[in-house]
Amino acid sequence: QVHLVESGGRLVQAGGSLRLSCVASGRAFSNYAVGWFRQAPGKEQEFVTAISWSGGSTYYADSVKGRFTISRDNAKNTVYLQMNSLKPEDTAVYSCAAPPLPWAVASTDSSEYRYWGQGTQVTVSS
Fold first, then answer.
1. What residues are paired with 12 via a beta bridge?
2. How far is CA 11 from CA 14, 92, 110, 112, 114, in A?
3. Radius of gyration for the alpha carbons in the chain, expressed in angstroms and rounded
4. Are 20 and 94 in contact (CB under 8 A)?
């Protein structure tokens, strides 16, 4: 079992920056890929970014490429999502997730993830 808790979401003006954290407890977190997904009101959940268990591979949605950066500190059991140049359309609940098995490939498909955090609200004002 992997337990995930996100933090860092808040209200920010357009053009601003935020860093979200996803802290894990339970099984050896360093062996798990992690994905970030977001869901805006009235919209489907969408993939944002993912990082491999080693941290050597990262993946980004086109909408955030060049503005968001995912990273991990396995010593702290934490994955970070640095978000720069925020836009009002980035407003959503952001959730981190881990797949059911260690060493699984990082995926852009939410159905590949079993463990989910409760989410953190990011609101970008224009």
1. 124
2. 10, 11, 26, 30, 29
3. 13
4. yes
Distance, in Å, from the CA atom of 59 to the CA atom of 68, rounded to the nearest integer, reads 11
| Structure token digits, residue 79 | 């994955």
Distance CA 28, CA 81 (A): 20
Backbone phi, then psi, for 88, in 5-degree steps? -55, -30
Range 67-82 burial, b when 16+ CB lie within 10 A, else e: ebbbebebeebbbbbe
Tell me the per-residue pLDDT of 27-82, one tens digit each, with 9 for 90 and over: 688 999 999 999 999 999 999 999 999 999 999 999 999 999 999 999 999 999 99
Structure tokens at 126: 């224009």
Map residue 64 onto helix, strand or coil: coil
Contacts of residue 8, defined as CB under 8 A and 6 or more positions apart, other chains included, come to 18, 19, 20, 21, 81, 120
Beta bridge partners of 36: 49, 96
